[in-house]
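Handout, section B. The chain below has 251 residues.
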Amino acid sequence: MHGRTVSLTMFLILAASPAALSAQGGPPQGPPKNLQVLPKDIPRPQLVALMRGVAGALGVRCTYCHVATEANGREEFDFPSDDKEMKKTAREMFRMVMDINGKYMPAMGRNLTDRTRVMCFTCHRGVSKPRTLEAEVMDAYEKGGTDSAVAKYRDLRAKYYGRASYDFGDAPLVNASNEVAARADGRKDAIKLLQLNAEFNPKSPATYQAIAQNSLAIADTAAAVSALEKLLELDPENPLAKRVLGTIKKP
């Protein structure tokens, strides 16, 4: 058990970053209470630094896991309380990471270093619930249609572009459009997602090829030709574009 605890402690140390360590207010006073995963004798300054590192990796504040109240005009935390389910989830996540680093990685012969060890940021990358961009867009689509999906993409891109939270390359929207196109009457919606992709990834051959395929499926030949010509600009030797354009323009 001691080895598992040390492994987790190292994981949390690696989760901490300079920015995260100054992200929230001062530490509470007195010895830590109700520690079930971390060593019960961990020094409070180290515990505070570790927890702030975790919060920074998830892009959250202490209130995400801990009960807080207003007292005398300031926020007071009941850190020992287990009233929030997210705190219980966090403990299980710590145990999971501890097992990955302490059990499964060594079993695969992996040499753990500061660069290879799994930590909070490995998956979360600044968001509380790590998900793919494709999943976020498709959830929005299923709840509110294409306009909702487009709005979700734009919102996430505005908030997270340039950070590691989501992949804003061309693949996620191409994949989402493929899923939408496979649904009944989904071709036009798929094209709207692809047009959004072309707006932000204008040099993506896969996007224009998908636009052409979906446009042909709904008999919009003009749109298909435009997409195929753009595809050939980006990929002059693309055999599909050459073949289909040759067929469409054949006298």
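Note. Residues 133-248 form a domain with the Serine Threonine Protein Phosphatase 5, Tetratricopeptide repeat fold (CATH 1.25.40.10). Compare this with the example in section A.
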